[in-house]
Design a protein that fits this description.
heterodimer; A: alpha+beta; Cytochrome-c3 Hydrogenase, chain B; 3-stranded antiparallel β-sheet; 16 helices; B: alpha/beta; 5 helices; 35% helix
């Protein structure tokens, strides 16, 4: 019987931004088991929320996750509005969608850069993040902060988009189209990326349905779910856009879905800007109190559907606040995707769902078999890089060409 | 200036220790490496192991489970080592102060040399903290 070795990844590991603990059980090069141990990030947010007023709750849920820091607030204020039957002015709806889509752009760019890093293409990482900076500048211009925008409040938004800021946003969007096309072509045409990502970490359509996966993870496997279309909220029912679906379910398709979604986001932002120039009026309906009742709110975060439930007992605080983040459903699919694959693919497969543990912390998925031999934790990234190097030699290709002349 | 301080303050190896953070400070730390800020031109580089660290960046609140590990990681660092708390959470606990799972201020179990406020602080602010610390260590 082959010996099973365990590769521990984490809880503090250079691969990860956040503390989480993976145990990869391997036989030779093949991954045969995966344990996920969490709990390093649990901050008791649902309980904390009961001690905050409805307005403060929005700031709290914003700090659930720094990358989806507008998705949680939008879902939360929609839940509060649902509980209190509060109407939202039209202009506020457009501002919500605008900020939400800018956030999706920066989140997908962030993922693309990190995926490049995991594959050993640090050039991709550096260039993608360089263009992401332009987005963060626009966020700072519109909201006052590079991250954590504090734009949402029950009944509307906190700040208006000033008319004189709109040209700067348009300019940034136009500047972003070139690099986006560049990244799309780099992923679509490069033989090394094809060899690394095609048929790697495949999630079938049935597995996605069984695990209830969400967002780009589901859409890459041919499951066309998108809360923005299925339960229109904010301004998504008022603008034109498409749901991006691919069918193979491998890491390559997950990348393609995200890149296509960025183009859709650019489209949505441009339409929101057009409408903001026309639609005037208040940005806030200033609700005074939330009557007893309960409400739900959805938002399609960059990783999938965010769901918030709020119950009010007539006071100024939520009596119960429940949050479900998309990674909660997506992370368990790692088990289906990573098993049977090779160790050198594990990094990119684990990263493919764009996991976000700060949102998720409440889960323990365990399937332990035994084995005692421990390997060094840094090995994994090195293995992934070596595989890319080997493929580059075999294919005689250099990796993604960033032809920067084309971004002009 | 002693040999240890001179060696410590030349080219800093940075280890990033994220607690139960919301990720934003962590992303901003990585952001400082990318072309806009490019701290590597000053000789700062991120390292994967705390055993190579001259500088530890703490981010986020540390909950009861993460705090024990964080302390253990700090103990593995070669001394002297400089510790900077990045962001409001690591400095004070921020909005999570009342949480049942908050393990108290991080400087209770890890000696912190500098605090960078902000939610999240901008990469410039982190750089300034490091520059100020290095200057102070060198006695300039």
């Amino acid at each position: 019987m082959p010996r099973t070795a365990i590769i521990p990844i984490g809880p503090y590991h250079p691969l990860q931004e956040e503390p989480e603990f993976f145990k990869l059980h391997v036989e030779g090069e093949t991954v045969v088991g995966l344990d996920i141990e969490l709990g390093y990030n649990h901050r008791g947010i649902e309980k904390l929320s009961e001690s905050k007023t409805f307005e403060q709750t929005v700031f709290l849920v914003e700090r659930i996750c720094g990358i989806c820091s507008t998705s949680h607030p939008i879902a939360c204020v929609q839940a509060i509005e649902d509980a209190g039957n509060i109407a939202v002015p039209e202009r506020a709806l457009y501002i919500r969608s605008l900020i939400g889509e800018l956030e999706r752009l920066h989140s997908h760019l962030l993922w693309l850069g990190l995926a490049g890093h995991f594959l050993g293409f640090n050039t991709v990482w550096m260039w993608v993040w360089r263009y992401r900076e332009d987005l963060l500048d626009i966020m700072e211009l519109l909201t006052g902060n590079r991250n954590h925008y504090a734009m949402m409040k029950p009944g509307g938004v906190r700040r208006d988009i000033r008319r004189e800021d709109i040209p700067a946003v348009r300019k940034m969007l136009d500047g972003l189209k070139g690099p986006l096309a560049l990244f799309r072509d780099a992923v679509a045409e490069d033989p090394v990326i094809h060899a690394r990502l095609k048929d790697v970490g495949v999630l079938t359509r049935q597995e996605v349905i069984d695990y209830c996966a969400l967002g780009p993870t589901a859409r890459a496997s041919g499951v066309a779910i998108d809360v923005r279309r299925d339960h229109p909220h904010a301004a998504y029912g008022l603008v034109e856009w498409d749901v991006c679906v691919e069918h193979n379910g491998d890491v390559f398709d997950k990348a393609v879905v995200r890149i296509r979604e960025m183009f859709e986001s650019v489209r949505i932002v441009a339409q929101c800007l057009d409408r903001l120039e026309v639609v005037g009026g208040p940005i806030d309906s200033n609700p005074k109190e939330i009557p007893p009742g309960e409400g739900i709110g959805h938002y399609e975060a960059p990783r999938g559907e965010v769901f918030h439930y709020v119950r009010s007992d007539g006071g100024n605080r939520p009596a119960r606040h429940k949050v479900r983040a998309p990674s909660y459903m997506n992370v368990p699919t790692d088990r289906a995707a990573v098993l049977g694959g090779s160790v050198s693919d594990a990094t990119i497969v684990l990263a493919a769902v764009d996991p976000c543990y700060c949102c998720t912390e409440r889960m323990a998925a365990l399937d332990a078999s035994t084995g005692r031999r421990l390997m060094g934790a840094k090995e994994l990234l090195r293995l992934s890089w070596e595989k890319t190097e080997r493929l580059k030699r075999e294919l005689g290709a250099e990796g993604p060409k960033l032809d920067l002349a084309r971004t002009e | 200036m002693s040999f240890a301080v001179r060696a410590l303050t030349r080219s800093l190896n940075v280890f990033h220790l994220g607690g139960s953070a919301c990720n934003n400070c962590d992303i901003e730390i990585l952001d400082a490496l990318t072309p806009r800020y490019d701290v590597e031109r000053f000789g700062l580089t991120l390292v994967g192991s705390v055993r190579h660290a001259d500088l530890i960046l703490l981010s986020g609140v540390f909950n009861t489970k993460a705090a024990i590990r964080a302390r253990r990681i700090y103990e593995q660092a070669p001394k002297p080592v400089v510790v900077v708390a990045i962001g409001a959470c690591a400095c004070t606990g921020d909005i999570f102060r009342k949480s049942y799972n908050w393990d108290g201020p991080v400087d209770r179990y890890i000696p912190v040399d500098a605090y960078v406020a902000g939610c999240p602080p901008k990469p410039e602010a982190m750089l300034e903290a490091v520059v100020t610390l290095v200057k102070k260590l060198r006695g300039a």
